[in-house]
Amino acid sequence: MKKTFVSTVVFSSLFPAIALAQTYYNGGYSNVGAYGISGYAKPQPSYTPAQAVSGNGNASLMQNYFPGSSYYAPQKPEARKQREIGSISVGADYVLGYASYETVDYTIESALNGGNDYTSDTRNFDRSFNSISLNIGWRPLRYVGIEAFYSTSLDEDKVTHTESYSQYPEFARGEYTVSYKVYGLDLLGYVPINDDIEFIASIGVGKYDATAKVKIMAYEGISTNELRSTSKEFEDSSVAYRIGGGFQIWLSKHLTLRVMGRWSSIGGDFMSYITEINAGVRYHF
């Protein structure tokens, strides 16, 4: 009887320490109040029941050995695809363009007294363009989006030729300007490579208005006093399709960097097609 009493007292005094040691061995994230143990336990993270992970080692042990446990694993970060679907974006691009022209011959009367007429063709027009493009887009699906755009070229006067005669205090200079504006809609297809990079393919339609103006101006001496001028204009206005491809990089939750190449078939009287390289940013709401 005496041995039994002593054994009972010793075992009862050791049981809390044994249970507490076992709790620390398993991770120490349990609510062990149901077993009468208090103090020493590690603080419990406050997660919602929806975040519970039943298959995790520590969580499983806590739930099995301590049914009152509130240990839960942290929730995973929101997937990017959930942020992309339904997003609206606004953006701007800087565009480098290269045009191809139909061959159209033309003659302009000289602006000089007794000067020779100026004869040339549209192949001598400058082929390179610098443009600014603005756009607004909507991505209703993970892999599909649409984008409305407006683009205008930055006009630059190019000198075509100079002409002068020693017997007259005059000289002539020829200049021309080629410009275009376009607005329309693109259908975009997205192919994610990873969480930060996507390939993009596009097909769209645009309303192109292109203008070329050649002007021959006569000046007095070396001044900028214009005496007279002659000119000729070319105009194209057509609805054309365009295709493209490129990629975009997610710099943050809302900001992307995009690079695209495009080819547009104009099919006008003097402008045949335009090849473009666009580089810009999009802000996603």
Walk me through this protein's architecture.
The chain has 285 residues and is mainly beta. It has helices at 2-26, 57-65, 80-84, and strands at residues 87-101, 105-108, 118-121, 128-139, 144-153, 158-164, 170-192, 197-220, 226-250, 255-265, 271-284. The strands form 2 sheets. The protein has an 8-stranded antiparallel barrel with strand order 1-4-5-7-8-9-10-11. Strands 2-3 form a two-stranded antiparallel ribbon. The longest helix is centred in the N-terminal third of the chain and has 25 residues, at 2-26. It contains 3 helices and 11 strands. 22% of the residues are buried. The protein is elongated, with a radius of gyration of 38 Å. 14% of the residues lie in helices and 52% in strands. The termini are far apart.
Tell me the series of helices and strands, N- to C-terminal.
HHHEEEEEEEEEEE
List the strand order in the largest sheet.
1-4-5-7-8-9-10-11
Number of helices: 3
Strand content: over 45%
Strand segment count: 11
Helix-strand makeup class: mainly beta
Mean pLDDT: 76
Main sheet makeup: 8 strands, antiparallel, barrel
Q: Provide the gyration radius in Å.
A: 38 Å
Measured distance between first and last alpha carbons:
79 Å
pLDDT < 50 stretches: 1-42, 46-78
